[in-house]
Amino acid sequence: MEQKALWIVGAEAVDPEKGLRFPADLYVGEGKILGIFSGGLRSAASEIGPEAERLDGQGLILSPGLVDAHVHLRDPGQTHQETIETGTRAAIAGGVTSLLCMANTTPVLDNPSVLRQVIERARREGSCRTYPVAAVTERLEGRRLAPLELLAEAGAVAFSDDGKAVGDLVLMKEALQRAKALGKRIISHCEDSTQPARSRSAEWKMVERDLDLALQTGGLLHLAHLSLRESVRLVRQAKREGAPVSAEVCPHHLVLTQEDEGRYGTLAKMYPPLRSPEDREALREALSDGTVDVIASDHAPHAAQEKISSFLDAPNGIIGLETLFSLSFSALVESNVLSLPELLGKLSFHPARIFGLPAGRLEVGGPADLVLWNLRVRRKVEKFFSKSSNSPFLGWELPGAVDTVGVGGRIVFRGGRFLGH
Asked: Helix or strand or coil: residue 249?
């Protein structure tokens, strides 16, 4: 069926690449942005022609769709927790139009055949653009490298054993070298298993080791879910020394602290664990000064019965796709740490740039993956489109709501509902 052209009129556009906010009308067709006009619809229509569906953006913020660089879809093999279908619907409901899905599925994404199956199923069943991250080592066991070259050829955008660190220094060094030759990043789960579990040293010592390897090899390194001021200091220094490193933090580490574990119990159990107020402030400062490039959800669904356990025995992880923007906006924009364009840069432009994705930009000729945000409202977190609901933020009232989401120029979500094709 032929896709109608679309006018989005009267919105305030945000360009996260240039850091600009401006009133604009967008003309969308053929899955792309065909025109961006700050002179208003009337003058724009005279150039292109007015025959198109009209979408009123008055009072709304228009931005590129978010790019979540850290998502566990649990599919294949763990579909009692999440599926490609439910996870990508949760993404769209949170304004995420592109995501990177992690390799710790069953079977692991460590061979081209499984990887291609995920890509094909995401194409058929997914609501957003889904980019697989393949494993660094076979079966995530840390003993032998996966066939990185074949995985890249099959469609992997990066490599990670997330959920586990690559503990063997020699293997990690070789992985960085081989991934560099492919132009791909290694995403490091920063947890040194020789250190006490969930300790501060378990994180920062692995950050230190991997930064040193990146400096030695020139390999492209992305540090996942940083939580400590020590980690921030190490990254800041490594960037000064020219290390090809990028880093991410998660909204829950920007909002909660270790004291909240007592309040929310296993719903607040994650890795890395919640830290001190001083660590939280260090993460916010690192986002402000550019030490940290990306905010990602680390969406980690678990079935309800899995979290009904002692804190010691419960699995790590919370869901985060649907609260990614609102929590980040609350922690950073409302606190005057970042401007709205800067925040959207951390949530869209920078992750797209780092992982080489065609996303995160508001530009003529670019894909029409777009979100209209209503920042005038606050919404209560009451339900999720995710298959799981393991979130400490249930019942919170958060700023901002997703009004409309378009993927490839097609409106797929509006007013809290998915639209049929």
From this structure: strand
Tokens of 177: 């070298």
The predicted model scores a pTM of: 0.96
**Given 3.60.21.10, 3.40.640.10, 2.30.40.10, 2.30.42.10, which CATH number is that of 6-63+364-418?**
2.30.40.10
394 token code pair: 């249930």
For residue 402, give the nearest of 373, 370, 368 by alpha carbon.
373
* Cβ(259)–Cβ(268) below 8 Å: no
Q: Among residues 209, 215, 147, 213, which one has the least CA distance to residue 182?
A: 147
Q: What single letter denotes the amino acid at residue 144?
A: R
Interval 375-389: pLDDT, tens? 999 999 999 999 999
Do 331 and 251 meet the contact criterion of CB atoms below 8 Å apart? yes
* Residue tagged active-site, from 161, 298, 369, 403: 298
What is the distance in angstroms between the CA of the first residue and the CA of the last residue of the chain?
9
Residue 223 · residue 190 · CB < 8 Å: yes
pLDDT tens track for 33-53: 999 998 655 444 445 555 789
15 is catalytic: no
Architecture of the domain made up of 66-355: Alpha-Beta Barrel (3.20)
Instruction: For the chain, give every residue range classified as CATH 2.30.40.10.
Output: 6-63+364-418
d(CA 105, CA 102): 8
CA distance 39 to 337: 31
Could you give the CA distance from residue 392 to residue 269 in angstroms, rounded to a whole number?
Answer: 9
